[in-house]
């Protein structure tokens, strides 16, 4: 079986495998649950920062979420966060945050179909 780790892939199963090698199934499962709980809160915090005109706050939240997304193999979420972090990039921050919501939903669905589905091997 070939694993797709292309830049346009929703998720990277190799990132999940690294977590399992590091701490076993339990660690991967706990980190997955934590990520799925925290990511929406972080996106909401970025929206709050944006509503108050705090672009730096949006970038700070994007930085934190980028790291988490990278560890969890949420590739496109990580890419969006990289763009949000860039103060020189002219972009619609509202649209980018909406894109993050969409990608989180896609990543969540991907987790259920990934070769390392949420069942213990």
- At CATH level 3, the topology is Four Helix Bundle (Hemerythrin (Met), subunit A)
Q: What's the total number of strands?
A: 0
Shape: elongated
Q: Could you tell me the strand content as a percent range?
A: under 5%
Task: Estimate percent helicity.
Answer: over 70%
Biggest sheet record: none
Reported CATH architecture = Up-down Bundle
**CATH level 1 class label:** Mainly Alpha
CATH superfamily annotation: HPT domain
Uncertain segments: 1-7
For the termini, the CA-CA separation is 17 Å
Average pLDDT number: 87
Structural class: mainly alpha
Order of helices and strands: HHHH
How many domains make up the coordinates? 1
Total helical segments:
4
Which radius of gyration do the C-alpha atoms yield? 15 Å
Offer a concise description of the structure:
This protein has 121 residues and is an all-alpha fold. 74% of the residues lie in helices and 0% in strands.
Notable traits:
single chain; about 120 residues; mainly alpha; Four Helix Bundle (Hemerythrin (Met), subunit A); elongated; disordered N terminus
Which helices and strands appear, and what pairs or packs with what?
Layout: H1 13-51, H2 55-72, H3 75-85, H4 93-113
């Amino acid at each position: 079986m070939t694993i797709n780790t292309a830049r346009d892939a929703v998720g990277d199963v190799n990132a999940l495998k690294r977590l399992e090698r590091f701490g076993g199934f339990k660690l991967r499962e706990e980190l997955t649950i934590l990520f799925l709980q925290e990511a929406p809160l972080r996106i909401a915090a970025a929206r709050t920062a944006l509503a108050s005109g705090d672009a730096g706050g949006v970038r700070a939240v994007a930085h934190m979420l980028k790291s988490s997304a990278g560890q969890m193999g949420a590739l496109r979420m990580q890419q969006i966060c990289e763009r949000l972090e860039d103060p020189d990039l002219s972009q619609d921050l509202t649209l980018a945050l909406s894109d993050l919501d969409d990608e989180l939903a896609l990543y969540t669905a991907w987790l259920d179909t990934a070769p390392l589905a949420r069942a213990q091997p």
